[in-house]
Amino acid sequence: MIKYLFNISFIFLFSLSSYAQNVSVLKDSVCISKKCFELQELKIGTKSTAIYKRIQKSYDLFNGIFFDSPEKRLNAKKDTLKNLISTNSLRDNQYGFEKYKIFLNKNGLLNISVHIQSYGSPWEATVYYLFDEMNDTEVGDNLFINKKMLLQLCRKKLKTDKSISFPIKNLSQYKINTNSEGKITGIDFIFNDEKNRTNSGYPEYSVSFRWKDVEKFIALQYKKRLIKD
Fold first, then answer.
1. Cβ(20)–Cβ(106) below 8 Å
2. Half-sphere exposure of 105 (CA within 13 A, CB side)
């Protein structure tokens, strides 16, 4: 594959818009002959950099170097990838390719996931976030009240639905589900079995709740914004 180095070409930058107006996924690609590597970054229509700092800490691809815009970070990824290819060290470095998903962007609440896959390795992982864009903070498990009871329900579902029992300590990883009209239908909680790591990472399991069953656990300050059209 590396012998086709001189056939490297760059596909122009474009934006894949989400159903929200101020959030999109920027994409770029580096191609070697018929093999293309896609690069992604999340673009948020805000002047603050706090959310970018948090997202970039998910997987530290640049040894702590912070990029204050998604365009700059995407260009840095492209330059890094080009250099690794030119030095025939892409596989040795197990370069991480990030992918972003937007689950919810409503009334200043942004629910996303960041997935990473290492080149030349089966290892992969996903981190889930809920951000409050109004004050540029991560909501995390502050979305919920009566957390001990909700955790107990999650443990019970894991045992009953998945026939799996392992320690779960927090409710910070979740994705909010919506229908075609943007109305919330439920929440999936994500848990990693950290005691049984494999070559591909920690086994990931989800526990699903319908909105009517989990609504009573949502903190009022966020519930109003989630259900408001």
1. yes
2. 18
